[in-house]
C-alpha cells in the first residue's frame, strides 16, 4: 500500500489480526509512523493559577510532541483538508487512559470555519477511532486565537457557549482537541462545562505544541 | 485575468480574483466550469470517479467523507492534493474565450556552438515540431541536451506558439530556467514547481515540473518532456494524460531521454521522428561500470564494520583527492554506514530526498569543500562535478534498475578535461538489470565510436 503522508509504497508483515480487520494497522509507512514522538510531560495547566479560569481543568494529557513529522501531518490534515488522515491516530486515541470513565466532548469549530474546512477535524478523529462523544459546545467567535497575544488570549471573553439542547450532567467529562498551545481554548471550554454542573473536566489533546 | 487563466484549469475557490469578476465572465461565456470530480456509473453496476484536474481514475486516489460544504458524502482526489484539494462539490474553471498570443518578439541570444551530432538532432527536432509530428530525442547523459533545444524552442516561440518543457524534478527546473533566460530573450518565461509563484503575464515558454501540468488545459502547441525516464514508474499513466491535457488539440509532444522505455517508444510511435546522440558532447565514451562483489555487506554493516573492498575504494578516492558519490538503496542503510565513513574522513556528508541541506552539500562537493557524499538515488540527476568517481552499494536492489544505473554512470567523467571516471557497482549478486545496463552502455559507446570514427571500448 501507499503511505498516506509521504506516498511511498510500503508493505508490512502480515498478522492474523490484519486478516480480519484493519484495526491496529497504520496507514502510514514505518518511517513516517516512527517519526511521531510522545509528548514530554503534561500540559502546564498550573500556568492558569490566579486567573478566572483556575481549576476549570482538573487534568490534561497530550499524546505527541509537535515535531516536524507532526507538523507535516497537521498541515496536510487541516490545511490541505485531507480527511483520509483522520484515522492515523485511532489506535493511540482509543488507548488513552484519560478517556476511561469520562464522557468525551470534542472542542467544536465555528460554523464559518467548518464550512471552509468541510469537515470537523476533531470530531472526525473520534469518529474514525470509534470513540463515542457528545457535542455539548458551540464556538461563539470565528476569531483565530493564533493571532492574539498571550495576555489577550487569557483575558478574552468566553470562546464557547452550551449547544442548544445540551444537557450537562454531574459526571466526568474529557474535552478532546488537536493542539494544546497555551491552553486558552481548553480552559474556556472547560469553564463552560464546569459552570453548568460538570463534576470534573479533563482534557486530551493529540499534540502538545 | 485572461493572462492568468488562458490555458489553465483552476480550483474556483483558489482563484486570485474577486468572485464578482469571475461571475461576470462566466455569464459572458468567457469562463467555463466543470465539477472537480466526476462520477461515472458503470454499465455492470458500481461507480467510478475521475479527477478533472489530474485526470486520475485510480479509485484508490479517491477518499469519501461527510462533507459539511455540500452536506453529502463527497469524494476528493488525493493524487493532486498538494495543489489544493479538489472534491466533488468543487468547481474547476478554465478560459474559453479567444486565445491571445504571447507578447514580445523572441531573440536567440545563445552563441554557443553545437557538435555535428547535436546540430543534426536540433534540426530534426525542429522539423518534427513544426510539422506537428511527435519526436524522440534519445541522447546519452552529457550529450548536451539543453543546447539542442534552444533553436527549436526559439523557432516555435517566434511563430507565436506556446511551449512547455516538463521535467520530473524541481532541481531540473531551477537548472534549466536561468539557461533559457540567458539563451532566449524578448519573451516571458515562467518556471513553475511546487511552492513557486504562478508567474506574471502570459508566458511563451513554461518550464515546469510535470505535476504542474495538471493545472493546464489545452495550453501548449508543444510540450517537451525532459528526462522522461526519470519519472516515477517511467512516465506513469496520469502524467501521460496530464501532458495530453496540457497540449492543444493539435499540439505536439517531444520526449528527451537517455533510456527510452517501451512506454515512451510506443508514445512516440512509428510516425514520430527520432534523433539519437550516442556520445557525449566531448566525444568520449560513457564509463562502463565494473561490478565488485560485496557479499553479506548488510550483516557486516549492521555489525558496525565497513566491508573491506568498500573501505579500500573510499580510501583511494581520499588519497587521490577525487570527489566521490556513493549511492545507497535506502536511507536507513545509508544512515547506518555514515558513522563508518566518518571514521575515514569526518567531512564525508550524507543526503537524502527530504534533507534540508541537499543543495548546499552538493555544492560543497562540487566546490571541493567536502571529499565525498553518501546519497540515496535522489541525487542521480542534475549535477555535474569534474573528476567525479562513483560507487553504488547494494546495486542488486530493485531501485537500481537499468535506467537508474545508466543515469548514475552518466554522472562520472562529465567534463572534457577528465572524461574518465570510476563507476563501481558493489553488489550481493549480479542482477539482470545490472547486466542490461552494462550492455546498453557498451552498445551506446559502440554506436558513438562509429559516429565519431574512433574506437570505443
Ligand atoms: Zn510515509
Ligand atoms: Zn486529482
Ligand atoms: Zn462536498
Radius of gyration of chain A, in Å, reads: 18 Å
- Write out the strand line-up for the largest beta sheet of chain A, numbering strands in chain order: 1-6-5-2
**What is the number of independent domains of chain A?**
2
Mean pLDDT of chain A: 88
Largest interface: A-B, 16 and 16 residues
The helix content of chain B, as a percent range, equals 25-40%
* Order of helical and strand elements of chain A: HHEHHEHHEHEEHE
Largest sheet of chain B: 7 strands, parallel
Taken from the alpha-carbon principal axes, the silhouette of chain B is globular
Relative strand content of chain B? 15-25%
What's the structural domain tally of chain B? 3
Small molecules held by this entry: zinc ion
Question: So what's the oligomer here?
Answer: heterodimer
Order of the strands making up the biggest sheet of chain B = 12-13-10-14-15-9-16
> How big a fraction of the residues of chain A is strand?
15-25%
Count the E strands of chain A: 6
Shape of chain A: globular
CATH topology call of the largest domain in chain B: Rossmann fold
Radius of gyration of chain B: 24 Å
- Specify the number of helices of chain B: 13
User: Briefly, what CATH class of the largest domain in chain B?
Assistant: Alpha Beta
